[in-house]
Amino acid sequence: MKYYWRIVFVSAIGILPIGSIQANVGGKQSGEPQATRQGVQRLAQTGGSATVKKSVKSPDENFKWAIKPEDQPAVPSGPSPYLYSDREYDWWEQPAAKAAAAQNPASYHRRSNSYATNPDSDPPRYVRRLSEIGVDAFKDVTWLEIGFEHRTRYEMRHNDIRHVEGGFDNPFFLRNRAYFGIKEILDPLRFAVEFQDSRVYNHKFASTDQERNSYDLINAYGELYFKKALGEDDRGQNRPLRFRVGRMAYEVLDRRFIGRNEWRNTTNSFEGFRLNLGQQNNPWEVELFGMQPVKRLQTRFDEANEHLWVFGAIGHWRKWSDIITLQPYYMGQKQTADPNGFTATNRLDREIHMPSLRGYGKIGNLLDYDLNFSYQFGTNGTQRHDAYGFTTEVGRSFDYAWKPRLSTFYGYATGDRDPNDNVNNRFDRFFGFARPWSADHYVVYENIKSPKIRFDLQPTQKFGIEAGYTWFWLASSTDRLFDTFDGNISVVRDPGFNRDTTGRSGDSVGGAFEGRIRYQLTPRINTVVGYTHFTAGDFVKNRIAAHPDHIAQRSGNTDFLYVEVLISAF
After folding, report:
1. 136, 377, 434, 450: least buried by Cβ within 10 Å?
2. Looking at residues 404-410, what average pLDDT do you find?
3. How confident is the model over 270-328, as pLDDT tens digits?
4. Segment 349-375, tens digit of pLDDT
5. CA 84 to CA 409: how far, in whole Å?
6. From its phi and psi, is residue 236 left (phi > 0), alpha (psi between -120 and 50) or beta?
7. Element spanning 351, H or E
């Protein structure tokens, strides 16, 4: 990956003559994805882009599904406020995003209403154009994007089953981010840098790369952006071509396989390339990528994992998005054995291929849904890899003042059925998020059967409440429960306490009540208080009883309380 920076530089030199012909330095690129979040004020003032006006006489006349003008929410003035969303709970949509959607009825894009499945914006939510920060001297500087964000979270964990040691743990997590990006003025050349510093204090256990990663870059890339390379769609929106090279932290699809992992104190990042044909507002879009995951080195500058590549192709079909958005996709991993790898998996040659299909949408005003199925095949060392997983969610939002929503979810991922049959059936979650499966991080997208019921309320624009209950079973009682009893912790060799290859410990993991309250103190300060109580099932209880000399003897029940404050500069 050390050659990527040279590639960016050479590409910039070679493309500048083209840029001098094509660039529209002061132009509004209303077809960009950022328009749905950052261009609200600009759209309100101009009435939408000129390209949209060419084909849209009125929402009712051309697009019967569009929001009527009298039903459109007011566009906020001043710096764009947002209600805090850590993307695992993105049902609480940003008011600015809602207003932008109303101002752009030509867009084919529809957000999923399912829990935690909408990727973060690009650039991230805390970033603003300099013209939007409320300083008159910068009102015309639309080509520079900046952002600063700080997050503090206190956690109280009691008898955390991720560790063999019980008792109380009271850590403080601190995370700081800064973003700087340039676009439009040098088109087609663009670039961005995002800095992050993650630390933990008062932690009872040795810190891992999930908690600590000081002074590092999670984004550092160059991009070639051709606004009209593929012409326009049937609603007059640009079809751009975008090629990005360097270090990237981003999310795709429903974030179950590639996600920034926003809840965690550290962030997933990759080094490689992305090629996008089309954009979010078009009826179709294609994304191709090839990347190496970045190893988070707690006290040194991060570096790419030279032993592993992840690659894929993602399609988006939005022509029927009022009913269904279809996302056929393929992802793969190819790993060469690392003799110095920390885990047993790192020390294997592996190759996994995963064709998949996702569909989400609405059934009138009655129900919304989100379905995904993935099949995996390949090799895992000397074993054949054969696994699958699926998720399904159905929800109903009720038309009352407090915006109640009721949803049900079921997720399934295969586990290894027989440790001696030379076939690995454990589903691989690639680099997806973990928290929505289990708020306390006991369960991830592997070897699991998990139904869930949730209820959400939003009494005011600044105040949100959510609660749910989840049941957990192992899909295979002979396979592991991922991150429990020091299994898969990057500073501890896995002692194997999280698996019973005989299956005698049972398959009942337990159940968990989850609840949290969020309140926006100011447009730039957001607070969250959450609590989870986990009730252990037979598997957890039996694994504790089976290792009395190592695992602190306890019932297996746990409590998790946290308080979080997030502050954005703009």
Report:
1. 136
2. 97
3. 999 999 999 999 999 999 999 999 999 998 999 999 999 999 999 999 999 999 999 99
4. 999 999 999 999 999 999 999 999 999
5. 23
6. left
7. strand 350-363
Spell out the residues 6+ positions from residue 549 whose beta carbon is closer than 8 angstroms to its own: none
Nearest Cα residue to 190 out of 232, 133, 228, 145? 145
Q: Exposure pattern of 546-557 as b/e (b: 16+ CB <10 Å)?
A: eeeeebeebebe
CB 152 within 8 A of CB 172: yes
For residue range 314-353, list pLDDT tens digits in order: 999 999 999 999 999 999 999 999 988 878 888 899 999 9
Q: How confident is the model at residue 103 (pLDDT cuts 50, 70, 90)?
A: low
How distant, in Å, are the alpha carbons of 141, 245, 393, 486 from that of 146?
Answer: 11, 20, 36, 40
**b/e per residue, 139-174, with b = 16+ CB within 10 A?**
eebbbbbbbbbbbebebebbbbbbbbebeebebebe
State the Cα–Cα distance between residues 112 and 293, nearest whole angstrom.
27
Tell me, what's the pLDDT at 341?
80
The Cα 28–Cα 131 span in angstroms is 13
Which of 50-64, 90-104, 113-127 is predicted least confidently?
50-64
Query: Of 48-57, 241-250, 326-335, 414-423, which range is least confident?
Result: 48-57
Q: Other C-beta atoms within 10 Å of 366: how many?
A: 7
Structure-block tokens of residue 273: 């390339």
- Beta-bridge partner residues of 143: none
Cα–Cα distance list, 547 to 160, 165, 222, 497 (Å)? 16, 12, 52, 8
**Confidence class for position 98, pLDDT limits 50, 70, 90:** low
Spatial contact of 211 and 265, defined as CB atoms under 8 Å apart: yes
Q: Within 13 Å and on the Cβ side, how many CA atoms surround 292?
A: 17
Name the β-bridge partners of 514: 468, 532
According to DSSP, the residues that pair with 526 across neighbouring strands are 520, 566
Do 88 and 434 meet the contact criterion of CB atoms below 8 Å apart? no
- Tell me which residue has tokens 């600063």: 148
What is the set of domains in the chain, with CATH numbers?
4-568 (2.40.160.100)
| Spatial contact of 123 and 147, defined as CB atoms under 8 Å apart | yes
> Mean pLDDT for the chain?
85
Q: Return the closest-CA partner of residue 129 out of 118, 119, 143.
A: 143
SS3 annotation, 459-498: EECCEEEEEEEEEEECCCCCCCCCCCCCCCCCCCCCCCCC
Q: Per the structure block, which two tokens stand in for 12?
A: 């910039």
Q: Give Rg (Cα) of the chain.
A: 24
Instruction: Show Cβ contacts of residue 150 under 8 Å, excluding neighbours closer than 6 positions.
Output: 174, 175, 176, 177, 566, 567
- How far apart CA 165 and CA 158 sit, in angstroms, is 10
| Residue 492 pLDDT class (50, 70, 90 cuts) | confident
**Model confidence pLDDT, tens digit, residues 35-65:** 333 443 443 334 333 333 333 333 333 333 3
